[in-house]
Design brief:
Layout lengths: L3 H6 L5 H11 L25 E10 L2 E10 L5 E7 L7 H12 L3 E5 L14 H8 L4 H16 L4 E11 L1 H12 L3 E7 L27 E6 L7 H13 L4 E6 L16 H20 L1
Parallel strand pairs: 3-4, 3-5, 5-6, 6-7, 7-8
Antiparallel strand pairs: 1-2, 2-4
Helix pairs in contact: 5-6
Amino acid sequence: MVEDWLANAYEGMSRRQFLARAGALGFTLAGFAMASSPVAGEVITTSPSGLKISEGKVNSGGFPVPIYEAWPDKPGTYPVLIIIPEICGMHEHIKDVTRRFAKEGFLSITFEPYAREGGVLSLPDIPAVRKVVDPVPDGRVMADLDAIAGYAKGHPAAQAGRIGVTGFCRGGMYTLMYATHNRTIKAAVAWYGQIRPELKPGVRTAGPLDVVSRINCPVLGLYGEADLGIPAADVRELEAALKSAGKTAEFVLYPGAPHAFFADYRPSYRAEAARAAWDRCLAWLNRYLKG
């Protein structure tokens, strides 16, 4: 369920208490904006120093999809990493994560999947967000990713033959699906992406477990053992299915970590698990994307 992170985020509190806390800290129920003070641990802010940063548009099916990109500010070319946002879209945390990857030597690009709907940053709660986001067809998102990958191949700072993908929450599910869609992707890292998403005609005809045989690249999955909506058994099932199909895959469950444990602006943030998962993510990308 899309609200899994929220359920984890206010465990031990009433919903009213959580809303009061969220409002006091300066972010909405859906977690769209950066908190003005730490929520759980320290909200991470990555300096643009040493980076080149650009915002622009990429044409996808006649629509200008907003993008945000960052890469090292020194001569050379870099492997491309496409970062797929969580359900909240391309907000400040996702841009910060894009800068973090750029600091590690990637041409990092993220985008706004819901720009055609006007975005979701101003919406008051998760039901309102779902009303906008849930009808978006997976095929449209795959087409947007294709457009961004095509744009990246012509980027002067890109190593055109080395494109990887990572994503969070719904973006994690899209990461798994894109690894089946684009045969040129070299590596994928999915952060707590849905494994058994709801199937709906015209929106989604398959989930990650249905397309295991079509995975085209090494896949790393990073999940919380205490995620209320993605059972550990499902994580293990997907990993086993990938390995049985001869795919290079590793799925990690972090003990005690809830959904969205990497989101440092939310109460669900778990610093120790987030640091360990970040290190594992970089090791995977360095091995299979940088090569």
